[in-house]
Design brief:
Length: about 325
């Protein structure tokens, strides 16, 4: 009875209303956490078993969490008479407040609208591998404000929805996940091009990640499984390129790194040279000087000597001494 009476006394005192507010806020937080946990597990199971895109569910999860917080704060405010009166006044001036808030939060509203457009039109989804500017990674989350991309260094890149919506992105998983990997090698002008092409073709076909995209008609016509062409000529090399198909971007990366090693080893073994640039350095210290330079130098010395002679002060002439005879003594 003592605890119940103490509780009643506290509630009847001036602090009771504040305790109710704190209790409502605590319940709101707990309910939101439970809701997010249950919905997250439901989304994960649905996406795996039913193969449902979870982008819209993820955005809905964030939206409903925001609604729960708004309802909880509204109930907490209504329990305090002073705050209730203030809230009524604020709702009365909601039009002016909406204008002020609209100007102050243009970027936030832009991110919200862009997030809704991403969920509706689906340029990318949660779990897709995309390239955004210099970042390549997997879309981990799309919420009301930003998109989270996890790159291959396990770093999270957070991009506002308004920015990623206005920027061109590369989606590696939309429609067809197969990827064509360029395999580029440069050989010297003295090397056998046909031998180099055969080596590249054999190594690509023998790789386990390579897939043959030829149709039955292409195979009957004798079309090679790998397309390899001479794409350009460098200063000291003939540039070859092969088009190798794989099932997904991860397989393309593994195929490219493996082929760099295996093709280089085959080239070294069979005498196909991978050139490096040559430079010829000429030291001009001991070379004879050009005639023009020598003439100009000689002319310059002559001018200097002439100027020196003209500037040389003239020596004063010595005056003739008067001959004076000495008087003889008589």
């Amino acid at each position: 009875m003592g605890i119940i009476e103490f509780g009643q006394n506290v509630m009847n005192s001036g602090y009771g209303k504040y305790i109710i507010v704190l209790f409502i806020l605590a319940v709101t937080f707990v309910v939101e956490r439970i809701f997010r946990f249950v919905l997250h597990r439901y989304i994960e199971k649905s996406s795996i078993l039913l193969k449902v895109d979870k982008t819209q569910f993820t955005l809905m999860k964030h939206l409903l969490s925001a609604v729960i917080y708004i309802i909880g704060f509204a109930i907490a405010i209504s329990t305090i008479p002073k705050l209730k009166t203030l809230s009524v006044s604020l709702f009365a001036g909601a039009g002016v407040l909406a204008i002020v808030v609209g100007f102050a939060s243009q970027k936030t509203v832009s991110n919200l609208i862009s997030g809704a457009f991403i969920a509706i039109f689906k340029p990318f989804r949660v779990g897709d591998m995309i390239k955004f500017k210099d970042t390549v990674g997997i879309v981990e989350d799309i919420n009301l404000r930003h998109t989270v991309i996890k790159n291959f260094e396990n770093k999270r890149v957070v991009v506002p929805n308004a920015i990623i919506s206005d920027t061109a992105i590369e989606n590696y998983n939309i429609e067809d996940e197969r990827l064509c990997r360029y395999v580029d090698f440069n050989i010297s002008y003295d090397s056998d091009i046909d031998r180099a092409i055969n080596i590249m073709s054999e190594e690509i076909v023998n790789h386990p990640e390579f897939i043959d995209t030829r149709s039955a008609q292409d195979k009957e016509a004798g079309k090679p499984p790998v397309l390899i062409k001479v794409v350009s000529f460098g200063d000291s090399s003939v540039n070859l390129r092969a088009w190798a198909w794989t099932k997904d971007p991860g397989a393309a990366f593994r195929l490219g790194t493996d082929l760099n090693k295996s093709i280089k080893e085959r080239f070294d073994k069979e005498g196909v040279e991978i050139p490096f640039p040559y430079r010829t350095i000429v030291h001009k210290k001991n070379l004879p000087k050009p005639k023009k330079f020598r003439k100009a130098k000689t002319a310059g010395k002559t001018k200097k000597r002439t100027a020196a002679v003209q500037k040389k002060p003239k020596k004063p002439r010595k005056s003739a001494k008067k001959k004076t005879g000495k008087k003889r003594k008589r």
